[in-house]
Amino acid sequence: MRRASPRSSSMTRRLIAGVLLTELLLATALLISLVYYTRRQLLSAFTLTLRARAIATAALVRYGENPPYPLKFDRSLLPPAPDKHHPDFYRVQLQGGTIIAQYWPVAWTPPTSGSAAFNLHGVPYRVLRLTGQPVLDTEENLSGPPPLLTVWYAAPALPIQARVLDAALFAGAAGLLLLAATGLLTIWGIRRGLAPLHDLADRAAQISALNWEFRPPATSRSTAELAPLIAALESMLQRLHRSFLAQREFLGNAAHELKTPVAILKSTLQSLLQRPRDNEAYRHGLEQSLEDVERLHLLLDRMLRLARIEQAAESGANASLPDVSLAAGCAAALDRLVHLAQSKDIHTELRVRRDALVRAESDDLELVWSNLIENAIKYSPNGSRVRVTLDAGENSARVVVEDEGPGIAESDLPRIFDRFYRAEQSRNRDTGGFGLGLAIVKSIVEAYQGRVWVESRQPRGLRFGVELPAQALPVAVPEPA
Ligand code: ADP
Q: b/e map of 148-172 (b: 16 or more CB within 10 Å)?
């Protein structure tokens, strides 16, 4: 299943276009180089031919038979021009002197040096000038060095043009054929090379809320470029799956928690309406209903609070928060719970080794401390102790809440911060909890980039610790008496 919106750009097409364009440029550059090289070789061979013909022409200069033995040129011995329609031209001249022979188009002045090109009635010609060519003929009656000749020889360069064109056509055709063949190979290779990506996309597309199983094909897994993508996908899916399950569990638990008080409320109201009762009975029924509504209200309040904290943590908007003192927060939480502690004759204690400032909403942190301290008081036996200790390092602070209660089983410890988690014994007891208090603690602490943990104390009790990024205050606050 291949999906592509009309506007999306295709990686395959871009790769193929890139490779084909490079191949085309390469073929063009090769063609130009080949044509240039062939032309140069042909020209140098042509110049050699012109030279040979110029020497052969100079060799036709002879002395006359009688004194003063004038130089003559025997035109009849000239070899026939290779091109019948376009004759060769020549001029033979005594060096710096008389013209001995010539067959030369009048319109054109011979060059004064080396070789040159010219056009005669649209036909390209090349001409070579040869100097210092001695007269080869000898005459016994003449003494001294032989006179020197300058020879110009011109021939049509049409064959060169034709052969260059031939070479260009051949190279062009071969290039196009090769381009087509390599182009097809490229398309096939790129399609094949990208196949693991498509297979991976197909497998990823099969994932849904009903099917979380992600099995990347073996070819994708063994592709070096795809391995990091697969690892990232797998870890993302694991996190998504976990959070999906957590959300579902939360919804189920919330529905379950809401169901009981609503059912009780309904049955109380139904039994009140079944038959007429006296005022006292109505009052009692309404009071019971109000209790249930209050519990519902408390549960909804906790759930909303949890949702709000998690939302705030996701948006990460805590730049403009004030600095709050941890010691002040812990003291305020203890203060609020003093009556609960007194009702159970529990001795509470706050030890501040070193105070610290945390950038946070003071209500949020107070909720953390009061949830931990309230649990410690709630689950501890009458007459026991609850101790809160605060200490700070350079960049972090730690608050520890310890109690002498029953603790919980080691196997249950990892689940204690889960939402709606309650240890068996506390479900049966009338502690009034929903199992959301510690989940709220964890969410708040993590929203402020901190961590929370729990461990059992010996011989009994639990120890909760919270560590938060904080700025330690320079002077230790004296411990309250
Ligand atoms: P609850 O509202 O039920 O107290 P919490 O999330 O605060 O919910 O606590 C979850 C469960 O962890 C409790 O139901 C209780 O079983 C256990 N728990 C928490 N704190 C303590 C403690 N200090 N001592 C023993 N058990 C505790």
A: ebbbbbbbbbeebeebbeebbeebe
Model confidence pTM above 0.85: no
**Model pLDDT for residues 76-87, shown as the tens digit of each residue:** 888 887 888 889
Mean of the per-residue pLDDT values of the chain: 87
In a domain, 217, yes or no: no
* Residue 47 predicted with pLDDT over 80: yes
Q: Which residues pair with 148 in a beta bridge?
A: 134
Tens digit of pLDDT for each residue in 408-427?
Answer: 999 899 999 988 888 765 54
Q: Are residues 102 and 74 in the same domain?
A: yes
Please name the residues in contact with 455: beta carbons below 8 A apart, sequence gap of 6 or more: 413, 462, 463, 465
Query: Which of 375, 411, 428 most suits a substitution to test ligand 1, by most atoms within 8 Å of the C-beta?
Result: 375
Q: Do 349 and 273 belong together in one domain?
A: no
Report the C-alpha gap between 33 and 41 in whole angstroms. 12
Q: Which residue CA neighbors atom 24 of ligand 1 most closely?
A: 407
Query: What burial class does residue 332 get, using C-beta atoms within 10 Å of its C-beta: 0-12 exposed, 13-18 middle, 19+ buried?
Result: middle
* 90 CB neighbour count, 10 Å cutoff: 25
Instruction: Please check whether residue 236 lies inside any domain of the structure.
Output: no
Cα–Cα dist 411/58, whole Å:
116
Ligand 1: lining residues by beta carbon, under 6 Å: 371, 375-376, 379, 403, 405-408, 416, 421-423, 426, 433-439, 462
- The DSSP 8-state label assigned to residue 83 in this structure reads -
Q: How far is the CA of 337 from the centre of ligand 1 (A)?
A: 16
- Choosing from 253, 385, 401, 426 the residue with most ligand 1 atoms within 8 A of its CB, the one to mutate for a pocket test is 426
Which two tokens mark 86?
């376009």
Cα–Cα distance for residue pair 370/333, rounded to 1 Å: 5
Please check the confidence at residue 477 and state whether its pLDDT lies above 80: no
Q: State the distance from the centre of ligand 1 to the C-alpha of 370, rounded, in angstroms.
A: 13
297 in the same domain as 432: no
| Closest ligand 1 atom to 401 CA | 23
